[in-house]
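Re: beginner question about structure tokens

> Can someone show what the tokenized structure looks like for a real chain? I only ever see the sequence side.

Sure, here's an example I had lying around. Input first:
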Amino acid sequence: MRCAVGCGHVHLGSDTAYGLDAVRGDPSHPVNNGLACGRGIRESADPDGSWLTRPLVRENGELRQTSWSDALARAGDAIADAMADDPDEVAVLGSGQQTNEAAYALGKLARGGIGTRNYDANTTLCMASAVKAYYRAFGSDAPPPTYDDIPEAETHLVWGANPAVAHPVMFRWIRQSADDGDLVVVDPVETKTAAVADDHVAIDPGGDLALAQAVLGHLVETDRVDDAFVEGYTEGFDRVVDELPPVEEAASEAGVSLDEVEKLASLLDAPTLVYWGMGVNQSVRGTATAGALVNLCLASGNLGPGSGPFSLTGQANSMGTRVVSSKGTWPGHRPFEHPDHRRTVAEAWGVPVSRLPDDNGPGPVGMFGSSPSVVWTVATNPLAGFPDATAAREVLEDSFLVVQDAFQSETVELADVVLPAATWGEAEGTTMNMERTVSRVRPATETPPGVRQDLDIIADVAARVAPGLLPRPSVSPSDLFDEFAALTEGTDADCSGLSYTRLDGERAVRWPAPDPTSEGGYRYYDADGESDDSTWSFPTPSGKAQFSALSGPSLPEPADESYPLTLTTGREADGYNTGVRTRSDTPDHPVARAHPDTINAHRDAVADPEGARRTTVVSRRASVPATLDPDDAVPPGLVWLSIHHPMTNRLTSPAVDPQSNEPNFKQCAVRLEHPETTASTDLLAAEVSD
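And the corresponding structure tokens:
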């Protein structure tokens, strides 16, 4: 599995050497029934990254090979010394690339062993805004619909997402369903998804919240609100309507016409799935906009089979980290602020309640802002993946950095200790996809002698800093699964009816699964098959869904005279996260897509404008050399860079959503400079510094 669609793959190990001989889609897996995308196959069978095969430690400024006992001792000593001063001096970063078992163990150690607030996974970098919106609306995390609803929908509204690139197998289902309906995309860029859609609404960058408000206002004005659903099952609608801006004003702010607002409103007359992704979440307005999209579903009655809000998750086990890792909630979505839940977790882990933080921490940007003395990263690459990556580098350079990963990365190059870990095809455990389905993963090949399982590495560190918290290596993934599944009993994310035995038999099961025979379906919905009546029950204080009235702050960096262009970022078809697995085709400098009119307007900033089109993209934080690619799909005034290139996030803004702490990756102000001008400026700055 390579993304959060959760496709089952069959991995065949080599008969003659270490590694995988072949990878294909698993026809018996209930999620994908044998379908697989080319990227998922290639990244498993033949990843481009440079493998880590021996523990490394830094001596005299250089990384050198060492023994596991030496590397683990150095990592453990650094963490223990920092803990003795202040647990928050230790920052731990996990990832959606871990199994559930490894994510659970890391969270148990970070929260229950170390006791740090400075712990995060990938969630706050990609999904936290959607999570906050779900909690505000429904009292619980995760999308209400499932994949079963895709063929039942008549309209597919894709907003700020590009599933044709990011989720190819899922997008195949969407296109098949849209053959008899509508596929409409809202995005500033004519993405590959937009190119095959029935319609593309080319919104201004950052205008998503205004557009959602305009559509809701138009629903009200044209009497399209499902009054029976709103009155029977929701609260807060009148307040939201009272605070809506005029439709014309909101449409103008979004950069769309009133005809386009009407078009979107009319789509909601039919059963509609509203999908959104990082284009919505990764913004200072991410939570407000995600909530506004949920508002559209509630107001139009688009909640129920074949309809509803469906956020698209990126990393393979991002949903698993939300349920089990103790990042945003305790296991099973138990809230941090609730003392009874903290007590339950403390008792299960055998640690004092006082050791457990009473909030989930500041998020990655805030975490690095506190300049922790020790940073431990697991299957993640913050030096390329964090916003304002130059500032992130300064924090990592000043810390004792422990990196646990399978591949060489920019973060590895700064490490004081490197712990080489197994990856997909080498590890055993489970994952959860974006529609809440839990699947088994198994090793198809042995690991080299210098590589260890994530679980065993985490347990070995735990033995040094929190003895008795975790079993000593080798750790049984099945035992860890049973432990976290038991902790979810009775929660909204109940996995207590799951076991390896059940998953081995059924291949994959969707939660909530509170007993050995049950499986989750459409959330909050109870249909009466005889009368076609349905009832709704939401885990909110009133039992009703809640409309969101968040307005969202101003965008942090609108274009101006000094920085007249807007930078946005997105995925490439063959790219994977920060590119460590897909580097063979990555150029030294990123390729900046821009409209030909934009390039012509800034011709003085382009070297060899008829040939290589070299330029420098400059933000308030950094300058990055780039090659311009004229592209009519990118609107004038916008510059598009791949999220997979390790230089891109040197430019992006560290501003975060005030509700979710998710960074504003998708919009910042930039300008283009001639490479010679930038080189002269950099030389002068270096001379002044000297």
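Each token stands for a local structural state, so reading them left to right follows the chain. DSSP finds 26 helices and 27 strands in the chain.
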